[in-house]
Automatic annotation (TrEMBL):
One GO MF term attached to the UniProt entry: DNA-binding transcription factor activity
Record keywords, A-Z: DNA-binding, Transcription, Transcription regulation
InterPro entries in the cross-refs: AraC-bd, Homeodomain-like_sf, HTH-like, HTH_AraC
Domain of life: Bacteria
Protein name as catalogued: AraC family transcriptional regulator
The keyword DNA-binding belongs to this UniProt entry's keyword annotation: yes
Domain HTH araC/xylS-type: 182-281
Amino acid sequence: MGKNDPSLKNMSQNKQLPIRMVSPGFGHLSAENAKIHGLTKRLPYYLFLFVSDGSSKHGVDLEKFDIGKNELLFFLPHQIQQLPSAHGNDYYKLGFDEECLFRLPRQYSFLLDPLNQPKIGFEPAASARLKAIFKILQELLSTPDTDPELILAHLNSLLTEINTAYFAAGDKPAEDKLSKFIGFKVFVENNLTDHPTIRQIAEELAMSTDSLYQIVKQYSGVSPKEFITNRLILEARRRMYYGERSTVKELAFELGFNDPDYFSRLFKKVTGKTVAAFFQDLS
């Protein structure tokens, strides 16, 4: 589960599914392997950390989160995870990739993080149910020959609980508006380096630019243009963090900018730092 291992397949706890769980006394890598994979990694899979007792600190895309009792933090593919030195007194970590999702009976809107809240709190009753499901999954994953359908059935229950709690944190969003916002996020992800215009996106989603602006502003707090800009700069920071691009010009072109100087000015406007300063902080 790390930068040097791009998938879960080699470390899966089931012979037929790419899935792995870690909890106190279960599933931990050896000290040697843990050192190889490091404390910071760009994830190629989904990862959940649920703390049922105690507290922890985790980093998602270079932003720190405090996770307390009955709280869960989730990571999406391609995000940067920064591990803490401790996870709390009682916790469960679960990683799985798209192959598991493809085999589930439904989709889960929260996995696109439309409300931009990767940390979720649970009421005591929901937390108890969540912990019970994690325990069953741990038992199922303790034997590599377990029928994958049993694992998927409980993974479906787990994601349903999380999806419900995610949207219960605020006013229940209108389904059509949420669907449009998710469509916006998906389109941006799939066409990020093409720099689509707001009009192009609105036409793709069969809506007006004004309606698109209102929905994106409602769920993200920023305009569609700002959302796309912030996503591009986040991708730049991710690639610099992992040393995937060595020069500003190369990075700018890779992200679809024709003018490296414009990219540099935009980077400083969003982050408050020059590209050179960000590289220096990483060294």
